[in-house]
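Protocol step 4 of 5: obtain the predicted structure for the target chain.
Materials: sequence only (see below). No template structures provided, no constraints applied. The aim of this step is simply to have a reference model before the mutagenesis design in step 5. Sequence pasted as it appears in the construct record:
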Amino acid sequence: MSGSIKFELNWSALELGVPTKPYRGPLTFSCISTYGLHEIGIVARGLPASMELADIKKYFSAWGDVGTCSVLKSNGASKTGFINFRPPPLTLEFMDHDQQPVHQGVRGRTLEIDFTSQTAKDLQLREKGELKKRVIYTSANCFDMGAFLRSGRFLRQWRATNQCLVEINLNRRIIFLRFHHENDDYQIGIRFGDVHRQIVLDSSEEDVYVMYIQTTHPPFMWRRQEEPARSTPRSDNWCEENSWVRVPYIVDQRDDNDARISIGDFGAYRVCVPSINSYGELFKDCINDLMRFNLTSNKTNASIPSVVDTSTLPVIDIHSSFPFELAYLTECLIRAQKLSLYNISEEWVAFINGLDIAVAKNVLMRMTEARDVIEDPMVYSQRVLPELSSIMVNLKDISAHNIWVRRAVVTPSKIHLLPPTLELSNRVLRHFHQYQESFIRVTFSDEHFEKLGSSRELYQTLLDRFEEVLTEGFDVANRHYRFLAFSSSQLREHSCWFFADTPDGMDVNVIRGWMGDFSEIKNVAKQAARMGQCFSSTRAVKILTKKQIKEIPDITRNRYIFSDGIGKIAMSLATEIASIYNRDIIPGAFQIRLGGYKGVLAVAPDDEMDGYLVHLRPSQLKFKSDHTALEIIRTAEYIPAYLNRQIIVLLTTLGVPDQVFVDMHEKFLQEVDGILSNEGLSLKLLALHYSSSWVSDVLRKMVLSGFLRLGDTFTKNLLSLLKVQVLKDIKERARIPIEQGAHLTGVLDETNTLRENQVAVRFTDPHDPSTIRSYVGPVLVLRSPCLHPGDVHMAEAVDCPQLHSLVNCIAFSTQGRRDLPSQCSGGDLDGDTYMAIWDERLFPLQEKHPSSNASQEEISDQEITIRDTVDFFLNYIITDNLGEIANSHLAWADQTPESALSVQCVLLSQLHDQAVDFIKTGVPAEMVSSLRPSVWPDFMNKLPRKSYESTKALGVMYRSGAKRLSRNFKHTGDLAVCFDEKLVVPGYEAYIVEARRLKHEYDIILRDLMNQYEIKTEGEVISGYIQTFPSMASRKKDKFVLRETLGNVVNAIWKAFREKFDDFSAAAADDQWRRRKASAWYYVTCHPDEIELQKNREYWGVDDTDTPVACATIMHRQDEKPTFLSFPWIVHDILRLILESENL
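Step 4 output (structure tokens):
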């Protein structure tokens, strides 16, 4: 810009971002270049009062792309409008008086058109060379979508050439690609975080820059519609962003539903930008700016892809070439863009088919672990085959109650397929086990495997896509899968089961008919939930006869069912089940499924059972069924009591001082600090930090035997991971243990001994699980989630010898006006757990009446169809606002003096009850805008501009925990390996060769497991203390399932290698030989010379062309191979004996 141009700026106005005074410079606006600006804002004064907002937008659209448009003020005779051009017009001549276009609405008028203060400021900064590039726009010649093939070739599968525009937004860290196709404008958004490796820029051609982008996830895509996608609160304001609606595909022919171009079918993009104009240079400069985001490189040796078209490449039909198991895994690879259909050769197909089916599956499973596109599947398969053939561990026989489950994730752009994972079985899958390949669990999510937000209008086009899958099904490997059913927990995760009809006549209708008779249930939500009972993850323990089952009446008073959901089980049968679960102490209750019954069975003496094994009540019967297999969901067990944000909010509302929680928080942080150096503190934390993993018990025994004092690296790694997990829970959830408390299964006093408001609390000692304790005295009882102050209650705990068999349970009285469980967040006894707290510091100073918990059902007078069930599933996705309600409640409680008793919180607690019951009633909770907070406390981690520093207990605790976590405790797993001579037993040398071979096999299996589930460190996969979950497990339920799956698989691996260890000859099976062999396992794992051998690339079966297995390393640098240390702890019991004998 010429230095002679001056602007009369109003600096106070500039700071406020309001329009400046009119420009009065000597030159015309047409002399001003818009080069380097990402937007231009103008104010137009003197617009006719008759002009509507749409007229103003249309008028100025003749000169450029209008991003926003609004009417600032109107005085009756004229209007003042604000117009923002994004990207800016190439010329500003329309701003000059003698150049203004003639328009019927402004004929005869001269408009005053001026820059906004921000635009004027941007022009000044550009003149000084100080304008930072925030957003860059440039036109493009074409835009290609496709994939990368072997030898650096780009496969062009679809092309756009009309009105192509590139926007690189450094502020939002996203690249937008816009184009016009047929009658529509489309926009694709590629997040910086989704770019795989780096963007490749080809500047070898004279007049064009070519940009290649490969992505890890399909980008979002939008289509422009004529009217705004959402009406704005003010009719005098229009924003271009609201004209874009999310869509799953590009429509090639409007009247042909099959002519769809799905963005999910492509994994790479090619953009051609002209370099001959100034914007081409600006584009190249912006590409260089992307280096600070690690998206581009200044290296000149980047390989430039060549371009090929699909018409020149042959395609093999993999579905007819492979049996289903192999075709499914191959399709997993193709849909994950790890293998291109165009890279598959007939030779590779023949090679895979020539292998044993188990070996072939393992080869394909190994391919699913690849981090990049597999350019040549034949080379890859031949390289991994020898390794797989010698070390395969058969995980099919892990146990009879687990099953391999296939999964699909339906996103707006595509259907992802996941390799089979091991999960706890259910009634349906056990009965139809011969059709296991025909079942698939399907989850509906957004592109990054996150839940879709609840908004019918915004996501309608995406819901249409989901509806199509649910009603019409989808194809995988020549099988057509159709909707079957879902459980309540699956519905919360937007998941359900599909089934593929089989040639012998098995289909979804046959399976539903076998499940039971649901015809008498006239509420679609309740019927779906009852069908879902059959899909609860269970373990079948015994087939009962009808003569062993007796129905007994419910205990009802004042319309309250005191016995809601609970029955009885004979002590003899409970003992049998405890043996199956390897429990030394018989649990006091079992959560069960038995035909159409559900709920809890509490242990009762055999002489009280009238010769029956099970007593069931009418409140437990949910539908008619002839099945008599007793299925266990879980057993009663001790779970430590923990504070959380909701409980802290309620207790402070009821008078407990903030300082109580701050003191508990600080004391616990100090204890966590010392767990790596203090055995007592580490054992205490292991006892208080609940984990159902068998590894927790192993770790506790290792600490007791002195391995922490020894400085054992593996022990310290696991404790470090536990430490980080605990600190994250403190920071993000205010999760602080309550030592004087327990989380127990709710049961009923069948002896009628307890008086009104009395309970019996009995549990195993967390520090000595062989000891059973009872608590006597005042006790606080509550159930999570709890949002209403009336959800917490004081009771009297008494010791009742008649109820001593109810271990790890809290027994409630059958007397009084109303049962206590229903007063605790609307609880019952069909599996709910209750927190019992006897820490007097946490006793509330006042009590409030409980909410009514009344819910209404939608009753249908017609037969409920599967289409009704599908519609309910979709409606749940649209209105799933449970998390939003809970978060809003937390925010209002922090910023209102009445806290949880504020009007907003009371209304939100009622909405929360309604949202929780939506699964059973079908009545959604409608969140009104007035209950959505405009600002949030800092402990909720919202955007800084919408956050404030909370001065209440949660805010103080959050900032203290955040400092502690960021300052000291990010686990890297890079502790120096400790080798202790105390564990070297003379004569170990005889087993060294075998130990090296077995450790190598073990390490490869463990590495593959880590790669399959994207787990970064050995400690995480062994312990379950996972620091970073893979994108496929972003939801709470998925995280739980992943931990459970990993625990089952690791346990099976350890059992398999323990059998190898125990393979002694009769002459060498004495205790000393076992110690020598265990010592050899320790030596090959921890001795410095052995560790150096394991760092060689040959050890891991890779060559110099492979990408380092960075995702499976516990070392600092990606060029090092992992050092795995868990191998000898498969025989931890023998190593403990060696160490304990040395310490005598």
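Step 4 remarks: Residues 1036-1061 form the longest helix (26 residues). Confidence is low (pLDDT under 50) at residues 1-27, 228-233, 1103-1120.
Proceed to step 5.
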